[in-house]
Amino acid sequence: MPVPAISSRSGGLVLSTRAVGLAGILAGVGLAGEFLFFSLSGFSQTSFSDPATAMTFLRDHGALVRTAVLFGAAGIVVTLIFRAGLADRLKARTPTLAAATLLFGIVGNVGDGLVALSFWTGIPAYVTLAGHDLASAQNSWSAFAALTGGYQGFGNLFLGLSALAAGWASVDRRQLPVALGAIGLVAGAAAIVSVLGVNSPLGFFGYATAILLVIVFRVWAGIELLRGRSQVKDER
């Protein structure tokens, strides 16, 4: 699959690069919004996985979780645009790492999308079911929680690999600031640790670290791509 290129026609280059930069910033904002609303809901993986407490949590805080899911779903859209543009920026000197950045990112976004869709449709369904048949809702909840946890782990693993590829390309070939590349490397490693150490303090630390650093990486990279649009135009 070829890495998408930014248009080189008159005017198209500047507009496309601006869109990519803005997409990166919005992707960071979307992830921050998702993290914020999950935090406001009081979401805890332990209580969420326990059928005895999950139904009460969904009834009282399901709306906040679904709001977080909306931010996440919107973030998936702009993240795809951002990754395509980022890969285009990296491909001149590191074509393999650029392709890895894009392809791993696409696969990771599929995992995130499955989590978002499952939560969006599953939460109201379980709240309704629990209202008239609590036992059935609780009996099936463990399977739902395990399935969505698997989707999340799948997504985090490949998004971590994508961040590692982008960070490595930036550090090795200086196509983006070295400090930004280092953030990408640490964020990617932390995301992978969160998957390998799931349901452990190390896994939680990796997850929280990855979230915060990915937000910084996306916003900073988006700003760099916005600043670089005039430089790219001058090189035509």
In short:
The chain is an all-alpha fold. The chain has seven helices and no strands. It is elongated and about 60 Å long.
What is the succession of H and E elements?
A: HHHHHHH
What integer value in Å does the Rg equal? Answer: 19 Å
Q: How many extended strands? A: 0
Distance between the termini: 25 Å
Q: Work out the strand percent.
A: under 5%
Number of domains: 1
Q: What does the main sheet amount to?
A: none
- Low-confidence parts: 1-15, 229-236
Calculate the mean pLDDT score and round it: 88
Helix content: over 70%
Quaternary assembly: single chain
Helix/strand structural class? mainly alpha
Q: Report the principal-axis shape.
A: elongated
Number of helices: 7
Overview of this protein structure:
The chain has 236 residues and is an all-alpha fold. The protein has one domain (12-234). The chain is built from seven helices and no strands. Helix 5 packs antiparallel against helix 6. The radius of gyration is 19 Å and the shape is elongated.
List the helices and strands and how they pair.
Elements: H1 12-40, H2 45-49, H3 51-90, H4 95-132, H5 134-173, H6 178-196, H7 201-234
Helix pairs in contact: 1-3, 1-7, 3-4, 3-5, 3-7, 4-5, 5-6, 6-7
